[in-house]
Task: structure prediction
Amino acid sequence: MPRFFINEKPNEKVIITGEDAVHIGRSLRMKIGEEIVLCHNGMDFLSKIENITDKEVVCVVSSIMQSQAEPSISVTLYQALPKSDKMEFIVQKAVELGVTKIVPVLTSRCVSRPDAKTFEKKRARLKKISLSAAKQSGRGIIPEISEILSIEKAIDDMVKNDLSLICYEKGGASLNSHDFRALKSVGLFIGSEGGFEQAEVDKCISKGVIPIGLGKRILRCETAPICAISIIMNLSGNM
Amino acid sequence: MPRFFINEKPNEKVIITGEDAVHIGRSLRMKIGEEIVLCHNGMDFLSKIENITDKEVVCVVSSIMQSQAEPSISVTLYQALPKSDKMEFIVQKAVELGVTKIVPVLTSRCVSRPDAKTFEKKRARLKKISLSAAKQSGRGIIPEISEILSIEKAIDDMVKNDLSLICYEKGGASLNSHDFRALKSVGLFIGSEGGFEQAEVDKCISKGVIPIGLGKRILRCETAPICAISIIMNLSGNM
Result:
């Protein structure tokens, strides 16, 4: 059933306008009486179409339930900004796999170093990709794309999770050494091309971030997050 | 240390020619006395450069060891051919993550349906991507890209593995229900855009292929193999 995210918690009656209204009426050619799901903040509002015009779709909510697709664990991906369009790829895949939030981080080895203003344009695009991936994969939330953070701010934010992990190619324990079923939130820090500098890893460890390894093969910076999120979702019982 | 795949098992002395020789001499600017690793069939041959000319590099093998990066489990990915360049992406990521072989399959819902001759061109490109990903990730073998198979032939091939699995979006057990540490080989069948037809899944089941699910979020056809291979490598102790 088609899913649409809405900004405010719906009352009994909801009026959809803009692109989504056009999509329902013209692209999907839906008719009065057909059903759609309105998604807001992890809740699914099953709704029946009461009226369709060129500019708006009027729906009546018939039942409310928690979104079935949301994982029981909240994973925030702290991703050192990679080159070219790799961040777009990472956002799309991470959202499909169930992350709650993505935080782009500037580390020493980031080749791409946009200033805050330039990144805001990129961020707008990443937000669109998050929305589109959330719709396609049936998510109950649109994962947030944070502003870009320095490594210091990222670490301070990361350690607020129940567990925070840094992927380090020079070693670290297996993800199997953590009991993810007992956790509500995890922060996962992945490097850009070339990984992290030792001093950055040491800084993370001194604040309580735990190094993990992803096996003996060297994964590209866009493969590592997809791999680690898949494994964490599986170990936490969300796959 | 730079790694180069060689076609034949090396004797004491190895002469490298062609692109690899140019790469060693001109791109890496390596000198006499420096070391490289020659890879053949899962074995690493540590070798010292004895001479470099414009056209060839002469190496002497100093020690031999099993490649440390090869997983203990052999995973063959049977991938229904997706649209556009998604197969290239899947090959790159699957090789990084440790698969042994990739078999492209034609299923009912494949939109891209090349004939054998057209696919051979595509296959040459996929083989190059496999080689390049194997080098980059430190693999001990170059995973094979098979010719394209009908679903019937793919199933017959797949069931030769210790365990064969089909990812089915309408459900199936979690990957956690299998003891991958006890297995030597696994076949993994993933659909193209739109997944499988029920009749195809039934045919697989009747031959002993087991359906598995990858959670409640709908994964794109290029995300599902990366996710499943990551989890299998983790559950088999190879991450």
